[in-house]
What we know:
The structure is a single chain. The protein is an all-alpha fold. It has two domains: 2-89, Orthogonal Bundle (Rna Polymerase Sigma Factor, Chain: A), CATH 1.10.1740.10; 98-190, Winged helix-like DNA-binding domain superfamily/Winged helix DNA-binding domain (Arc Repressor Mutant, subunit A), CATH 1.10.10. The protein has helices spanning 2-12, 18-38, 41-58, 69-89, 110-113, 124-132, 136-147, 152-159, 163-190. The longest helix is centred in the last third of the chain and has 28 residues, at 163-190. The protein starts with a helix and ends with a helix. Mean pLDDT is 83; it is low at 92-114.
Amino acid sequence: MKLEKALIKDVLDNRSNAVEALYDRFAPAMLSLCFRYTGNIQDAEDVLHEGFIKILKSLGDFKPRQEHSLEAWMKRIMTNTALNFLRDHSREKRILDIDSVREKDFILEDDDVGTDIYSLSVTQDQIMELIAALPLGYRTVFNLYVFEDHSHKEICEQLGCSENTSKSQLRKARALLRARIIEMANLIKVK
């Protein structure tokens, strides 16, 4: 917590390299968060840049409450920036596209149903790539629910959808992700 307070003070006092130190410390985690929402690195970098500008503008208003609260505060700003980006860049101005994936794309074969996906040799980076490749609505709900720990009620308030839509998108995202993990693991075995 002392380190966070000192870093904040240095940035607010316009000390040389303070903004760079803040960026270097938090940018990798924030870029990963942005990538999970946008699905591609160029958009993730745009969101990261916009989010850091917001962070720097409002850093003086931040009040540390506990250790790592700066990072949690920054993640909220980045998440909201990513959601705004997705809303602004959605072709139809609808974030949830329920029909974006055919049902057959994520129906598991009988042999796959009993597969323990935790025992498969798929790396964390590969899983993150699969999450980033999910359709926009699935990916957004999945990220908010799994990584940001939002309830379906909170998700539907943020996205302007019903709780049932949020639950459906999460269920379909999990099924599609599971099917793609199993598919990837089977491809790895073949090699």
